[in-house]
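During the first year of the project, the team set up a workflow for recording each protein of interest as an amino acid sequence followed immediately by a discrete structure-token representation. This format lets reviewers and collaborators read both layers of information side by side without switching files. As required by the reporting guidelines, we include two representative entries from the current panel. The first entry is reproduced here exactly as it appears in our internal archive.
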Amino acid sequence: MNGTKTRLVGVDVCKCIAIALVLLIHASADVLTDCAPGSKNFLEALFWSAPARCAVPLFLLCSGALLLDERRALPLKKLYGKNILRLLAAMLVWAMAYQCYHLAMDHAFTAANLWQSLKEVLLFKQEFHFYYLHIMLLVYVFLPVTRNFVQHADRRMLQYFLILWFALGILYPTLRPFWPFSLLGGIPAQWLMNMTYASIGYGVLGYYLKRYPFCFGAGLGLFAGGFLFVFGATWIMSLRAGTLYAEFLEGMSVGVAGMAAGLFSMAVQGRTPCPRACAQLSRASFCIFLVHMFFLYTFNELGATVLIVGAL
């Protein structure tokens, strides 16, 4: 798929949207954490941040739609010798670059600190937004299994898998802090999937929605319902807690999953040729993800944050 006309338009569009939403999440983070819940700035920032939280799930949906496609050959040699090796190399190089940046900004650029930074990078104690790269390593390792499953499963079996994934990877973790689920202990408390393994399910969902998308109205309703849930529940719980309550903003929460699935389902129904600018931005999304925090850190050092003008 080298030409823009043969690219998956919906996937390119979703990747462009996702990278913009990642930037929006990090740009609005200071407002959400520094402003009192219920204040004008807090609500404005929450209004923009709530839909932006589907950024990482969108990336996972796109990855599933592409990497699980049976028309794309992915032998183990290519998976480990190209995909995983490139991801690991990019992670280590850029993680070290961020370490050097912080040392330089703190005027602590010494041989001892460089050695300590290198050890932290090799132990995956890296930049906070690199958690997505750590997740993708596991997603890649499981690809031979998930590819085999989706290519031999019929629609009903895919639906069965997605129901289990949603119940244990999305719904249960969302409800776990609340009564009566908070009373559960022992093995039932361990039934839920943690975020890393639940991410594999997002890939299968991306594959499923590419083949069987919801109708446009259902996708729009799912996105709108997810947004209202995330915005409203976060607002109410933050007011009660007196500080930001971020549980409903997590990528594995019900509302965020709904927004991601609805938006992705609407996007993959596009059939027009992919605009060149969209295709180019889609190709550059990984690079933008890696480097964007350099700019945000620099802007913060200069005092140039959204707090200057408010969330709007």
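The second entry, processed by the same pipeline in the following quarter, appears below.
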Amino acid sequence: MRIPFPERVPLDRVAIFVVALFAIQRLEGTNLFFSTGCVVFILIAAVAFNAAGGLTRASGAYVFFYSVLVVLIGICYKAFLGEPGQSNLQAPRTTIEAYVGSITAMLAAVIVSRRFSRKSGLLQNLLKESEMYRSSVGCIVFGVAGAFAIALLGESGARLGSAFGQLNQLIPLGIIIGVMYEIRRSGGTRSTNLPIISGAGYFFFIGVVGFSKQGMLTPLLCWLLPVCALRFRFSAWQMLSCFLALFVIFHYLVPFSQYGRSFVPENASLSQRLAIAVPLLEHPEETRQIYYAQMEEIGEKGLSAYYNTPQGFWERLQFVSVDDSLINYTDQGHVFGLLPIKAAILNAIPRFFYPNKPDINFGNIYAHEMGGLAESDATTGISFSPTAEAYHMAGWMGVLVIAPLLWLLLFVVFDSLLGDLRATPWGLLAMASISHTAPEGALTGMIHLLTFGAEILIFCAFFATWVAPIFAIPVRDPDRRRT
């Protein structure tokens, strides 16, 4: 079995799907305006996805992850539960209007960007296939050891360490390169080797002790993207293993990370984190039950309650309710202004030139505005989609003017830089980053992608090509062992 890596979606099948969804929503009591808005959103999203080139291009990946994770899963799961689509929303009419306006503006940005983007990426054809194994090993080795080596420099290496920490996506990149190499070398019969397993295990461990959902999911995603891109044929046990891994992560480890992070003191050491993590992991079902009981007691209703009853991780696969809360608050006369964009641009300046640059958690600020967090909570970050933040910053001007301008710039830069995402490891690394930023990075997440995101990709591409193989000189390529 192969998992598809779609270049386009058939519009006739999309039309059948939206007609069925519309009928189900109407039978369940969803009002006509909201149901019609859902239909229009899905149809425009499909057209935008196809126009962008599907998952082969960065713009298409952005359209996909934005539309699926912000809106589509939420409204479909709502229909599956038999609940009216607009229930539990404070401003359903404005919210669905904002989504339709956003996806229309995104379609316009895609169409215009195609006129200015390069067809072949600037970073394509850098890494030779003969160097992929050593590059993979070198990236993983330096990704693990680089920070420790820089720390040995003491205070003189502090700034270098900070810069390396921001650019260091070498372990995920090493996993992707290794998977691509192993699939090609084996003729599609294998997808892992010892360096891949070692790097993935280390990154997963860091995610566990860091109570980071993203850290725990990244190794699996970095394996899954290249196997889909290269059309790797899954065996039955591999498919079963994937489903089992996803079940364990979402059923046990997501509640573990959400619950455990509240006990971690600021600047906690590794031993302190282990002391917190190990007891919680020893009894995963008990940890899970405690977390959900706690959420039910305080009512995980509020900012993220779209469904009538708590739905666990399904609440985190939709942004309709949290966006609706911010949009409704904005409609009460609380327009925030463009300060977040200014702060995001200033944050792109290297700390070497701007030592005291601000580091403002605007998701936390928005949640405080709406009364969704305790007054003393200055660290919890609430994620909003680009649509909600654009609307909160400048109303319809934000949704229909500011957001599409940023999308246009992002699509031109990333499509020109990467070209076909399937062709290079950094293209797939960019997709992993987009999968996180497109739905929950808010509007300012695009500025982060355009600055730090582009820097990370360029750094990783040239490091993997020119530097990483040097760190793997003692390692013999498996192909060369037989000669």
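For the second entry, the following points were noted during internal review. The chain has 19 helices and no strands. The chain has a mean pLDDT of 88. Both points are flagged for discussion at the upcoming steering committee meeting.
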